[in-house]
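FAQ: What does the model actually see?

It sees only this:
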Amino acid sequence: MVAAQGQSLSIQGVAFSLPEPGCLDPLLDVLGAIDQGQSLLEGEALQRRFGLNKGRAIVSHHRLGRECLDYVFFEGVDAVSHPDPGPANSLWFQHVAIVVSDMERAADQLMPLVAPISEAPQWLPNGVAAWKFRNAAGHAMELLWFPPGQGHPRWHQDDGPLFQGLDHTAIAISDSDRSLLFYGVDLGLQLRYATLNQGVEQERLDGVINPRVAIHGLSGCSPCGVEFLRYLSPSPLRPSAAALQPQNALYAQILVQDPSAGSGRLLCDPDGHRLWISS
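And it is asked to produce this:
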């Protein structure tokens, strides 16, 4: 793979597979996501993006803040069983982090529509508040609130909406060095932060016992990034994201914009997480 230029490459958002059309409409309404229409993929376009040789994909495009939150429903494709998502240290785990201006109010609005992963919103030692949950399709999501001086300046604008946009997508990984090589060297993203998360707040946030998580965050020329979750304890669980087929509800693609991508290309990272690179 030829490395992209970090100054021109950007993370635009995430596309998730959808087991049932319309099942997330109530959640998207509460989030204030803007409907930007649909795209139909079949034939060569379907094969190039999803590796499927029959059927078609209906991609519903939404925008939350400046980022894309897309959902893909497949027609005429063989059905597959939808796996148990498993805990946060499962190597196919992936979530999107939505920044909010008021954590308690945002969590209260979403609570009737989702299944919590975290016991409740957690205030971490660095002052950041976080709450993880799964939506009606089984996709993991997170709410984030940043105190003054933390996070991108865009999250501290006066009179901002309650749900402001996507800060990052987080993926469980098995080897930090290998993922840094792929995303940082091969792809061309820049390392923005690194930390070790542990303690009772992280345990309540993740819903796992005694977690120790090595975290790295990378991004390109836009604020939205990708975050690695390397569980030192408990150890990462297989299978990896490579086991997921496009019609699995847990299947996702990180949406990356690269002006040199032409008609688009599908990449797979060292743990099987997919990236769709388009211009």
